[in-house]
Amino acid sequence: MKIAMVGSGYVGLVSGACFADFGHDVVCIDKDQSKIDRLHAGIMPIYEPGLDALVDANVKAGRLTFTTSLAEGIKDASAIFIAVGTPSRRGDGHADLTFVHAVAREVGESLANDAVIVTKSTVPVGTGDEVERIIGDTGTPHRFAVVSNPEFLREGAAITDFKRPDRIVIGTEDEFGREVMREVYRPLFLNESPILFTSRRTSELIKYAANAFLATKITFINEMADLCEKVGANVQDVSRGIGMDNRIGSKFLHAGPGYGGSCFPKDTLALLKTAEDYDSPTRIVEAVVKVNDSRKRAMGRKVVDALGGVEAARGKKAALLGLTFKPNTDDMRDSPSIAVAQTLMDAGVTVAAYDPEGMEQARPLLPDVIMCDSPYSAIAGADVVVIVTEWDAFRALDLKRVKELANAPVMVDLRNVYKPDDMKAAGFTYVSVGRA
Fold first, then answer.
1. Cβ partners under 8 Å of residue 149, min gap 6
2. For strand 317-321 and strand 350-354, is the pairing parallel, antiparallel, or unpaired?
């Protein structure tokens, strides 16, 4: 089957490469000529473990190609995926569907055969109806169906998530759409991956509901971490204790500086706006968004306190280890490191930082932060070392070297990478999250 993937960003490129690896012929389409040129040269526009090798193998096999021409790319395609960005709209927080609508219009005007148009982008409830209307208004004579097929890819584990999914959600009331989507995902039948067919609007809501629920779990355990610090409990043990309950589960119960990335901040906000539009308030999600936003700056104040307070912190230096919102990605969108760094600089603290993959993306967002070429160069002369992102490279730091390079043996571990007793034995003043 020929598949066209409109949008060669994170979702589109990963999905396109995986579909090609299943044996489909895939064309990834993007308006950005420089991105397409880099892909032709084997240069990935994003960092995702294993993606470069997957793309290279399928390009060499002739199953994966790239183009800037939508008309050429969708020609003879049975399934056309829309995988363009839907960022939060400035001013009101709604998902900006400008790119989705533009692609729908161009697809309708360029359609040369019967096809299923699939919204892979995360879109609010009712977007499929609008996409269907836009394509219909172009007057295309060809049969088409609009299907919702949300993605559930974790950055850093996207290829595994695509090839071994917890579930595949397909929203359509059209039998033509069902038939084509069954063929698209037929290779996964061998893995017995569960496929859930729903109405289109239900499918659109599932993605938002899933991300809002996971964001709620993260925010809940972060509030429990604050309580643990007050009462002298250990949040990691609390996490294990409640996570062993099958009704709760252990995932997304790791206390830290708050959630960030491309999905949770944007999707929780978009869900709130959808709920407002339909006069159906989602008070829990409202609280989650508010608590998470305030938590990031609170983590910055935690570091200031470790430096002795606002007056004592002025003129000192902090070393931030990790800038991306999570390890194994170069994504800086809504990363807690941004708020932590800004809070420190507002307090007069000089900030030096290192991240294994996110330096290029971080520079324009944090122009006043000194970017270093290694964790130890960031630590040199620092009055406090702050672990913001739990990259593997920071899990086994040479603590003796850290003490020799730093002005003071003070560490604030916002990811609970180290054990308090070990750090005490190593001679550090150690501050973590939700632990005495």
1. 81, 118, 119, 120, 168, 169, 170, 171, 181, 203
2. parallel
The CATH label, of 3.65.10.10, 3.40.50.720, 3.90.228.20, 3.40.50.1820, for the domain at 294-431 is: 3.40.50.720
Which residue ranges make up each domain of the chain? 2-198, 208-289, 294-431
Distance (Å, rounded) from C-alpha 211 to C-alpha 215? 6
CATH 1.10.1040.10 for domain 208-289, yes or no, is: yes
What local confidence, expressed as pLDDT, does residue 321 receive?
98
Q: How far apart are CA 181 and CA 82, in angstroms?
A: 14
* pLDDT over 80 at 226, yes or no: yes
| Annotation marks residue 372 as catalytic | no
Catalytic residue, from 18, 28, 263, 372: name it: 263
Q: Closest Cα partner for 79 from 198, 170, 177?
A: 177
Q: What pLDDT digit, counting tens, does each position of 264-320 carry?
A: 999 999 999 999 999 999 999 999 999 999 999 999 999 999 999 999 999 999 999
- What is the band of 215 on the pLDDT scale with cuts at 50, 70, 90? very high
**Alpha-carbon span 139 to 216, nearest angstrom:** 44
Strand order in the sheet with 168-171: 64-67, 25-29, 2-6, 79-82, 115-119, 144-148, 168-171, 195-198
Condensed to tens digits (0 to 9), the pLDDT of residues 16-54 reads 999 999 999 999 999 999 999 999 999 999 999 999 999
Angle between helices 283-306 and 200-231 (to 10 degrees): 40
16: left (phi over 0), alpha (psi -120 to 50) or beta: alpha
DSSP state of 154: P
Q: Token digits for 192?
A: 């017995």
Give the number of residues written for the chain. Answer: 436
What's the rounded Cα separation, in Å, for the pair 234 and 230?
Answer: 10
Alpha carbon of 254 to those of 138, 234, 302: distances in Å?
A: 49, 12, 18
Residue 152's pLDDT is 95
Which class is domain 2-198? alpha beta
CA distance 424 to 85: 46
Higher pLDDT: 82 or 262? It is 82
For 375-416, the DSSP string reads: HHHHHTT-SEEEE-S--GGGTT--HHHHHHHSSS-EEEETT-
* pLDDT single digits (tens) 411-421: 999 999 999 99
Amino acid at 309: G
